[in-house]
Amino acid sequence: MLKRINVPAKNSLTIPLASRFFIFFIAWISEVTMGIPTSKGDLPLPFFHLFVRWDSGYYLNIAKTGYHGSNWAFFPLYPLTMSALSSPLAELLKALGTPTLFVMGVHRYVLSGFIVSNFSFLLMCILLYKLTVLLYNKKTAFFSVFLMSFFPTSFFFSAVYTEALFLLFTVLTFYFLEKKWWKTSVFFCFFSGLTRVVGLFLTLPLLYRGIVEYFQGKKKLKELLYLTLAFLPLPLFMLYAYSQCGDPFITFNVERKYWHVGIHDPLKAIMHTSYPDKLYLFPILFLTLFSLLYFVFRERKTMMPYIIYSVPLTMLYLFYAEIISFPRFSLTIIPVFWALGQIMEKKIILQFLILSLSCMLLSIYTSLFVTWKHIV
Q: Of the four listed, 33, 34, 174, 318, which is most buried by Cβ atoms within 10 Å?
């Protein structure tokens, strides 16, 4: 078995699909054996309700009724996609004779969000494999996709959350940047910014690559100006907020009020978390920071665009965002998976240890997430 792991996957969809079935089984068995707290008011939607937790409710509210109150903390593209898909999906399910339960009220939005997340994840894995082959080799690509698929918090890729869609646009941005399709890369960077505010950090590697190629005579100033498109999502959303509620900074104000987001000392923030939260946080925090440092020191001469993207993003997650969400946010730090993929190439025992630990933690965290424990 261990020797087979050394062989790159012929089909970059095999591992991601296997990971989804694994997560779905763990979610189902957790519901059967542990039960779901009735106080949480779960949706009466078989199976799919397991992937509607915590922030999912905000995306569903935006998709169904638009922006109001604390919904302003979340960017629009994911709920807009859910809303756009919900009606044709409901009509299709009715035509197929699906029980009314699956298409009534908010349920159609749950199904559309579930489809968007899982489809985005599978497509992202295919593109991540292709991007990694461009930058490294097939073996590193295989391990990177494997780790992304079975990372301890990868269940978020199947939940009604933005992680899968955001990472899809991130990988598309980098893939077309490496393929020298500048306009296309900027185009997908724009959509990443509409999905999450941290999409703004994707402009950094594009700006770096654009300036370097400009001074090398490979790019004209006119081409650099296309990059302004990538900076537009945040000001556009702020303008929309101002037109709706008179406060262009409502996203940041809401985050500060309800999630206590702001500049802080991450060590103090960690110390103030509960003991169970520390157990959830520490393994991912250590694995992420160790892998990122490994990547930075190993690739500092050849992978500067990715360092310029991942280091500031990690600093934001540590020093500004809610620290308990770091394990989820770490999914977007792509160089972490490249570093781990390279480490796993070295010895079979490392492959076994890392993959075993990852799958074990994935099982535990998935079970805690679907049973409404504080995994956010």
A: 174
